[in-house]
Write a structure and sequence with these properties.
The protein is α+β, with helices and mostly antiparallel strands. It is 27% helix and 25% strand. The longest helix is centred in the first third of the chain and has 18 residues.
Length: 380
Amino acid sequence: MTFQLHRTVLAGDTPGAATELYCYTAGPADAPTRVHLQAALHADEQPGTMALHHLLPRLRDADAAGQLKAHFTIFPSVNPLGLANFSLRHHIGRYDIETGVNYNRRWPDLYPHIAAAIAGKLTADPAANLATIRAAVLAWIDSQRPATAMQQLRLLVLRSAVAADIVLDLHCDDDSLKHIFTSPELMPGLQDLANWMGVAATLTAEDSGGGSFDEVLPMLYRKARLAHPGHPIPTGAETATLEYRGRADSFDAMGQEDAAGLYGFFASRGLIAAEPGQRPSPAPAPTPFEATEVLRADAPGLLAYHVGLGDRVRKGQPIADLIAMDGPDAFIARRPILAGTDGFVLSRVSGKYVVRGASIAKIVGTDVLPARAGAYLLED
């Protein structure tokens, strides 16, 4: 049996504030493929943790049967710092309450840190070049002296992810259908993952603007290729953010379904020597994230939605009414918020009182929106 639980103590930033990071490993240490799974980087998003809760026993049993052909590293709740962020009975797991930084933003741009270390060391062998780049990143991580608990956590997670060939970051939206964020060069290679998940959309972007975790490794290899056009450099990791519906969708039945999808994906890849289960229906082809409208409120008010998740809408169609909460017609007047593109409703917000500038829906279209091209693509 290789299935094992590991605990790492993260030194706290204040007295008595140390915490533990839990992770499981399973599968042969020398397996040719390494998989990194993590959930709840936004610590208030629990559907991914529920999915891994149901996946872990299946991996444990597969390990006992000698069926694991890859090495798995699984962080069921990768952000214990965010788990502790409670204020006035509300969990603020999306942001570090000391700095206000989103836990899934401002991850490091690795290439500038290793450019000098790999200069003159690349060859005509893609595998050797990948090994050189990974070794340089690991050396850079080893050279760091983290000043905060968050920095400790990020370096520990990066160390695992950089060594992996498949890196999946499990999240959820607010109120949403299942979807994936990934880099365009990784499609259609990850279409099988989209199929096994049963997603409504796969949204692609080279750089969504926020330094998200799933973009760190594709950006590393992309920049290395651009800097060394004469040397073959593979995209060393298939990385994606998996959005498992909305924050309220942490239920056993859903977690079992999501775990079965992940297990089927790995088994269909030959990473688990077991039957993957019933083959899924094809998911939609990927679309550029720039073709998805993030619809925002232009004033504070109370939302009254006209559309549900998955509904197809046309440009100019009312998505919701905004009920005024101030002014001469406060709590009587209402006016429509209109879709800016044709598409379908991927997500909404569960809290219907919104402030000016709040995102209230994502509408997935097919045509790149001029206002989105080259812009910051994320909601926060």
